[in-house]
Amino acid sequence: MASELTPDQAIQELRDQLRHHEYLYYVEDAPELTDAQYDALMNRLKRLEEKHPELVTADSPSQRVGGKPKEGFTKMPHSRPMLSLDNAYNEEELRAWDQRVRDALPSTEAVRYVCELKLDGLSLALQYGAGSGKGEAHGAKDGSAHLVRGLTRGDGSIGEDVTSNVRTIRSVPLSISAAKLKAAGLPQSFEVRGEVVLPQASFLKLNEEREAAGQAPAANPRNAAAGTIRTLEPNIVAQRRLDFYAYFLLRDGEFLLPQQSTALDALKTSGFRVNKYVRALKSIDEVVKFIADAEPLRDSLGYEIDGVVIKVDATAQQRRLGFTGKAPRWAIAYKFAARAGITKLEDVLFQVGRTGKVTPVAALAPVLIGGTTVSRATLHNADEIARLGVRIGDFVQVERGGDVIPKIVEVVEDKAHPRGTKEIVSPKNCPVCASELQRIEGEVDWRCVNNSCPARVREELLHWSARGVMNIEGLGDAMVAQLLGQSAELGGESQVVTEEGAPVVVRRPLIHTIGDLYRLKREDLLGLERVGEKTADALLEEIKRSKKAGLARVLLGLGVRFVGERTAQLLAEHFGSMDELMTAATQDSEKASEALEAVNEVGPKVAQAIVEFFAVEKNKELVKDLAALGLEMTAEKRVTTSTLEGLTFVLTGTLPNLTRESAKEKIESAGGRVSGSVSKKTSYVVAGEEAGSKLDKANSLGVKVLDEAGLLELLG
Ligand SMILES: NC(=O)c1ccc[n+]([C@@H]2O[C@H](COP(=O)([O-])OP(=O)(O)OC[C@H]3O[C@@H](n4cnc5c(N)ncnc54)[C@H](O)[C@@H]3O)[C@@H](O)[C@H]2O)c1
Ligand SMILES: [Zn+2]
């Protein structure tokens, strides 16, 4: 207990804890604490250090930014340290900061503040110059600027070179034409700092994939973004759809323009994405109002924010205000309160998913958190339950962020919140079909491996009928439950079973497989609760209509691991029929992978999943059954537009965004060839600004000419 320690010992202990958690957060991208918990520890340390200034050391976490750079990346110094921001947690602290700012400046001077959203991602420094950093200095002659290097913040002084990953982010311009630089008032070399964020939709998709692959889900979009930008595989980064928002503009380590507000304008003009919620304001009262307006945006932005950053607008004033140890005095981050609440864990339910994965779900006494009633939270798996040490009857801290499923953060224990007594027992058998659960070596999850488990069939049916898949209206929770012989009342909960046992089966199931859907008769449906003639006819019509959905939808509906909408579409277009796909996937494994990986965007992981899917007898039978039932299993075979097999390209002039190398890379990775000279055999000439004799030759030979946009379209 801290109270028994000397201040020196207490400080040491807090520092050790903070360093440990910083390591997990910054280096491993796998925090164990929420930010609120970490901030609380940091604030304890800061208060102790304030009381005992003689104990403050330069290496204290209160004085330093970030973590150590990760192995595997080249380390590069920053042009000027990338600092942290001091925080204000309420209006009083914010007003105190405003007072300090005004006290430090002559009273005759007006102070203007720029308010920006505090994007919850990680910061990057992007250096631009005449050369692309990969050889040739394209911009040298035409005055354009090129992305030379992208660095993470690292420890604030030294960052990690993640240039090849940064190049895959669509909102980072790879080059900026001389004309645009001129319009924005930018020189040819400069530095942009900003935030990389992972949109919530990409985050949810990533976690679905991680779960399907038996990996632990990422804790939050920030950590997922940090993990992504620091993977060593640029093609993975490209798939994740990271976004970059620019907010600082520098040159040689100094702010380039006399105001932050004009810097944001210049960034926008030159083609960077600048967040649209920006305001330059004249008083702290207006700032308080901006913050109040910004907080409710949290649920609708599509990316996470954790506060508002307030900066002194004038660079000259910033210079006079200067810095403390690890943060500027001229800026402050107003942090929104964590959306959290304390409630009682009433029970733990075990849910069986489509893949058989059993997930413990907390049933909570309903509690209002950030305007939403929360009564369920995920407990992920047995490891997570053990880590939390949670028991039924405990009071727990629940946190909710953006669209993310509520999560139990910790057990609360004090006089008002006594501990629960009932241990959570993970079932040894499937709570629905009673078959013994299994755990694949190296995975944390337990799975029901019974392919005909009603819980799994239920999830399969719901997936099959879902919007964007087979689109069968009227086949939702309640109807599926009834078709499986369960009570309609159970609806979404029918597979959620407590210790008391499996869902009540009230009648003989009408269907056991997806194929059975297409054998349903009118009189079957009329026997169900609350199903009249109109409902029955409408559902049968919908089911019939779905037979025409086509191969891509069927593939998607089958729920093969990693095969999402786009992959299903590409597979359908490549093979043209289910038969051809099955033939390809069921030959010996080396040939199968080769045949499947010939499809655009299909890598070894996806290929493997397809092979495994068709190796299961039940799946093969289902596909045959569906074909016999008259479902459309063909698609128009199409050489997808991004396959440039057999085509030859010549590049000339300067493209607005792509460098010569990256255009070449893109063409080659899509199977095309890039040549240096134009001939009759050239398929396309890609011409940019100031294209010369090659363009003339193309025109005289009648070779097709593309601009950058045309090339990108061809690449899909
Ligand atoms: N959970 C854990 O274990 C753990 C461990 C370490 C740190 N943390 C968290 O990390 C954060 C501390 O790290 P920090 O030093 O990055 O501080 P910070 O995140 O509080 O503030 C600084 C950062 O804000 C970002 N930012 C977003 N929008 C901005 C804008 N418009 N203008 C300028 N900057 C903007 C930048 O990336 C900048 O580096 C805290 O939130 C802390 O809770 C958590
Ligand atoms: Zn089961």
From TrEMBL:
PROSITE patterns assigned to the protein according to its UniProt record, in alphabetical order: BRCT, DNA_LIGASE_N2
What is an annotated GO biological process for this record, any one?
DNA replication
Task: Offer one Pfam family short name for this entry.
Answer: DNA_ligase_ZBD
UniProt keyword list: DNA damage, DNA repair, DNA replication, Ligase, Magnesium, Manganese, Metal-binding, NAD, Zinc
Binding site residues for NAD(+): 35-39, 84-85, 116, 153, 195, 311, 335
Give the EC number. Answer: 6.5.1.2
Return one GO MF term.
metal ion binding
Q: Which residues are the active-site ones?
A: 118
> Which InterPro entries does the protein's record reference?
BRCT_dom, BRCT_dom_sf, DisA/LigA_HHH, DNA_ligase, DNA_ligase_CS, DNAligase_adenylation, DNAligase_N, Hlx-hairpin-Hlx_DNA-bd_motif
The lineage's top-level taxon is Bacteria
What CDD domains does the annotation carry?
LIGANc (cd00114)
Q: Name the cofactor(s) required for activity, per the record.
A: Mg(2+); Mn(2+)
Q: Which SMART domains does this entry report, sorted A to Z? A: BRCT, HhH1, LIGANc
Q: Where is the BRCT domain?
A: 639-716
Identify the residues that bind Zn(2+).
Answer: 430, 433, 448, 453
Q: Which GO terms describe its cellular component?
A: cytosol
Q: Which family does it belong to?
A: Belongs to the NAD-dependent DNA ligase family. LigA subfamily.
Q: What does this protein do?
A: DNA ligase that catalyzes the formation of phosphodiester linkages between 5'-phosphoryl and 3'-hydroxyl groups in double-stranded DNA using NAD as a coenzyme and as the energy source for the reaction. It is essential for DNA replication and repair of damaged DNA.
PANTHER family, per this entry? CHROMOSOME TRANSMISSION FIDELITY FACTOR 18 (PTHR23389), DNA LIGASE (PTHR23389:SF9)
What protein is this chain from? DNA ligase
Protein species of origin = Tunturiibacter gelidiferens
Gene name, per UniProt, is ligA
